[in-house]
Amino acid sequence: MYCVAPDCDKETIYNSGYCNSHYQMWNLYGRLEKVYKGDRYKHPFYHMWNERKCDNLLCDEWLDFWTFVKDIGERPEGCKLRRIDTKKLYDFNNFKWSKDTTRKNGETRNSQQIRRRKENPEIYKAYELKKNFGITFEQYQELLEKQNFVCAICEEKEKTKHHVSGEFKSLAVDHDHKTNKIRGLLCQRCNRVLGKIRDRTDLLDKMKAYLNGNS
Known about the structure:
Elements: H1 20-29, H2 46-54, H3 65-72, E1 79-82, E2 96-99, H4 109-119, H5 121-133, H6 137-146, E3 172-175, E4 182-186, H7 188-197, H8 201-213
Helix pairs in contact: 4-5
């Protein structure tokens, strides 16, 4: 395959679509035309760099614009530069490209949240699992596979749909409220039943006896 840059007949490298020369040019300057040091104000990354510099958010090395440009590399489409740890300065080990969360025209805060959840379901699921239960998304997936993707009690798949998205909900994480130990994954119905009876096994026995006596 040949380089996609205009008027270039060299072969591509990697999966970039560019030849080695144009790949290095894009990686260094953010565009295919060479940018001279005196021309940094026209560079597509200049505003982003200057904004953070004025806010005193850059490490000493990144106060040099061209070092900053070289280190952050190519901007993924639709992404913004953010810090991994917001308590520290931007540096080579403390930056990431993340999806731009700016609202679209006519979009409300609620509709923006719904769109972002649809676009990045795993990110939001991972955040909620870590925040509420202290487990990772990978650990949740392992539990799910161990249960053959069905409820640990009724052994059925989730049948409840989300009122907004219309998609089936994920199995709920069930845990012991005293020890916080994860017991398994339950469908919405079984999880609600345990919540209503507050994990009282004696009440479950009474319900079973009631049903058997009136069947």
